[in-house]
Specification:
Layout: E1 5-9, H1 16-29, E2 37-41, H2 47-53, E3 59-63, H3 80-85, E4 90-93, H4 96-100, H5 106-119, E5 122-127, H6 131-135, H7 139-150, H8 156-159, E6 163-166, H9 180-198, H10 200-205, E7 207-211, H11 216-223, E8 230-233, H12 240-250
Parallel strand pairs: 1-2, 1-8, 2-3, 3-4, 4-5, 5-6, 6-7, 7-8
Phosphoenolpyruvate (PEP) is lined by residues 9, 11, 167, 172-173, 211-214, 232-236.
């Protein structure tokens, strides 16, 4: 049985005081949630203070990116060891904003995924099609390309630890959420792809989150679909009530 993972991607929002207040509020509000995994991914500079704020809670700490090299002259980058050092468990990789705004290739994302897995971090690997790609009927091909490109050299044992986030780009931050049926169709396709590449035993345990304008009002119907194992939440993760509304709606 796969446990739901509801993760908040705070993106480049909030400040130190607001990050800590949100984290403390979530710690209190989520203290009785035992059957769902919860994570927050603050901006890099606030990961440590948020980690201190949620210490001892049932909320996992995540980062929004990591570099694949171990250490050295990589100005501006952060290593897997640094994330582990401050208590991180998860790292979002290949988010569409990094693929499309920062022009990250699947090859680079793959190096990051492998580095994260080798270090013991859980990658939340994002895949998803643009609106033009959905309209052109190539969603499946785009997901397959991103999946294969981002996961090469990942063993079956390692794959069991990967979380995939299906995030249709047209639904991210737009208020346009995929229908539960649209989400389930792609999630089912991703699970079949995992079966093709790694076998059914692996496919059965890999969690596939949906992301794209998830809110309390639309989360339950999506999260009840059999191949949807959680949500990656942007905007609605910035307010305690909105984030907890998603969690409590499916509890
Ligand atoms: C995201 O940041 O991954 C995301 C899905 O954002 P939003 O929920 O705001 O659409």
């Amino acid at each position: 049985m796969r446990r739901l993972l509801i993760a908040g991607n705070w993106k480049m929002n909030l400040n130190l005081a607001k990050s800590v207040t949100l984290a403390e509020g979530l710690k209190e509000a989520a203290k009785n949630v035992t059957d769902i995994d919860i994570a927050v991914c603050p901006p890099a500079v606030y990961v440590q203070p948020v980690g201190i704020a949620i210490a001892g809670s049932n909320i996992g700490l995540g980062a929004q990116d990591v570099y694949f090299e171990k250490e050295g002259a990589f100005t501006g980058e952060i290593s897997t060891a640094m994330l582990l050092d401050i208590g991180c468990k998860y790292v979002i990789l290949g988010h569409s904003e990094r693929r499309h705004i920062l022009h990250e290739s699947s090859e680079l994302i793959n190096q990051k995924v492998v580095a994260a897995l080798n270090a013991g971090l859980t990658p939340i690997l994002c895949v998803g099609e643009l609106l033009s790609e959905r309209e052109a009927g190539v969603t499946d091909a785009v997901i397959r390309r991103q999946f294969d490109g981002s996961l090469s050299n990942v063993s079956a044992e390692q794959m069991k630890k990967v979380v995939i986030a299906y995030e249709p780009v047209w639904a991210i931050g737009t208020g346009k959420v995929a229908t539960p049926e649209q989400a389930e169709e792609v999630h089912d396709g991703i699970r079949s792809l995992i079966t093709e590449r790694y076998g059914k035993e692996v496919a059965d345990v890999v969690r596939i989150q949906y992301g794209g304008s998830v809110k309390a009002e639309n989360a339950k119907d999506i999260l009840l679909k059999p191949n949807v194992d959680g949500a990656l939440v942007g905007g609605a993760s910035l307010k305690i009530d909105a984030f907890m509304g998603i969690i409590n709606g499916v509890k």
